[in-house]
Amino acid sequence: MISVLYIDSDPVLLESGKRFLERETDIRVDSAHTAKEALERLKTGSFDAIVADHEMPEIDSIHLLKIVREKFPKLPFIIFSGNSRDEIFIEALNNGADDYIKKGGDPKSQFAELSHKIKRSVEFRESEQKIARLNRIDAILRRINESVVHIHDRMQLMQEVCKIMVQEAGFVMAWVGFEDPDTRRINRVTASGIVDDFFVKVRLSSDDITNGQGPTITAIRKGKYSICNDIKAYPAMEMWEEDVLRKGYQSAAAFPLSTGKTVQGAITLYSHEKNFFTDSEIRLLNGISEDISFVLKTMEIEDTRRQVQEELETSEHRLIEIINFLPEPTFAIDTQGTVIVWNKAMEKLTKVSAEKVLGLGNYEYSFHILGERTPGLLDLVFATD
After folding, report:
1. What crossing angle do the helices spanning 154-167 and 107-150 adopt, rounded to 10°?
2. Phi, psi for residue 259 in degrees, rounded to 5
3. What is the pLDDT of residue 174?
4. Contact 142, 166 (CB under 8 A)
5. Residue 29 backbone dihedrals phi, psi, to 5 degrees
6. How far is CA 134 from CA 123, 163, 278, 286, in A?
7. CA 91 to CA 63: how far, in whole Å?
8. DSSP state of 350
9. Are 21 and 43 in contact (CB under 8 A)?
10. Could you tell me the end-to-end alpha-carbon distance of the chain, in angstroms, rounded to an integer?
11. Is 304 left (phi over 0), alpha (psi -120 to 50) or beta?
């Protein structure tokens, strides 16, 4: 459904235009008699296109267009005017109008043309946004993939992800917080963008998983993304309404991050645009958060493997030290028959140093003890018969 704001000081034309355009099943029209009334509607409503008469009591369409472009640079704007001067048409296009239609002639064909231009302008802007979004997501994924290759510390990687979300995705702020499973508090946090008093308040209120509110805690509790496309209308954000109005934050979203079986954190994003998080945007960002979670899980597995390996090596080192200082001559072989331990007492007994024996197989130990290469009692441990 295409939502159109139609502005015209002629009440008859405004009503007939609204009636004709709404014959199309996919167009809904909200009308305004003045530019001032239209600007008020833009504060409270969301529209896919604007159709405006050029000559209005307070300001003309060019002036209105300039005001609209400051806050809504991509909103389709069509001037529908009885003024036939070409310079107005040129000025309108130079200031960002999407199209210009001259009033006059058969109303039916005139409004049919207007309907066609509305749909075409909306489709063109949507195509632009899709291309921009794809390019933006591609840039985000490319930079995150590059970061994964070079950064092996979890919090450093999350800092870089936040920075990418601000620089490439255009969010005003991005932050990541991880829950401490013992205290149920968020104690590992990193952020990028406008990290001001608003962030501090949100951060502190999110600190306690049990009693916290807002998108971040909701995402962590439920293990599912939490979207707030109008912060001012979101009950859990009411305590920050004054800061929201002052900072101009409009939308927020949090996506869960998991490093194991349970959700352990979330990435929260803020935008200056209301209704920023469309279905396609949510799918793409959720996919990115899932990719990040996979990387975090891989990093955790690698950390665990490295820790186990280090503990094993420490244990083996301590065991060898113990064996080395045993008073009894002691040696050890692995399942392949290779000598892996040859202690000091063994060196004294055989007059052969450990460095000459370690790593050798083929009954090397019996050669230095008995003078011949023959299986010993130790080899019977692995014998199949």
Report:
1. 160
2. -115, 5
3. 92
4. no
5. -115, 130
6. 16, 19, 13, 15
7. 11
8. H
9. no
10. 81
11. alpha
Predicted confidence (pLDDT) at residue 278 exceeds the cutoff of 70: yes
Q: Pseudo-torsion of CA 160, 165, 166, 170, nearest 10°?
A: 160
- 162: alpha, beta or left, given left = phi > 0 and alpha = psi -120 to 50? alpha
Residue 24: both structure tokens together: 């199309």
| H/E run at residue 165 | helix 154-167
| pLDDT per position as a tens digit, 308-367 | 888 888 888 888 888 888 899 999 988 888 998 899 898 999 999 988 999 998 888 888
Two tokens, residue 339: 């000598």
pLDDT in tens, 50-75: 998 888 877 888 888 888 888 888 88
CB within 8 A of 62, min separation 6: which ones?
54, 88, 91, 92, 95
Q: SS3 string of 267-295? A: EEEEECCCCCCCHHHHHHHHHHHHHHHHH
Name the residue type at position 345: A
Q: How far apart are the C-alpha atoms of 19 and 31, rounded to whole Å? A: 11
> What residue has token string 């892996």?
340
